[in-house]
Write a structure and sequence with these properties.
The protein is an all-alpha fold. It has one helix at 2-51. Keywords: Membrane, Mitochondrion, Mitochondrion inner membrane, Transit peptide. One of its GO terms (molecular function) is enzyme regulator activity.
């Protein structure tokens, strides 16, 4: 029983060290990377809006873009529709 308790204590300490020295720094690094990528994306969108009098430029109307055979139950836009970055398909429907 003493050997089992000793093994459990060692395993607990191993996973505690993995959590503190591997997982938490990895989470912090990924968070910083995603934040920087999204900041660059928003800066690009702001630049496009500044060039086009506060509006995003009109996307090309190719037949294969935004093809909907039938609308979603909640409408023609996707469930994760973002009006600041995507074209509102309800306007063109």
């Amino acid at each position: 029983m003493e050997a089992v308790e000793h093994h459990a204590a060692e395993t607990t300490e191993l996973w505690r060290k993995i959590s503190w020295y591997v997982c938490i720094p990895a989470i912090i690094t990924c968070t910083a990377w995603v934040y920087n990528a999204e900041a660059e994306h928003n800066a690009h969108l702001d630049h496009l809006r500044a060039e086009n009098d506060g509006h995003l430029p009109e996307a090309p109307t190719y037949d294969y873009l935004n093809r909907r055979v039938k609308p979603y139950p909640w409408g023609v836009n996707s469930l994760f529709f973002n009006p600041h970055a995507q074209k509102n398909l309800e306007d063109s429907a």
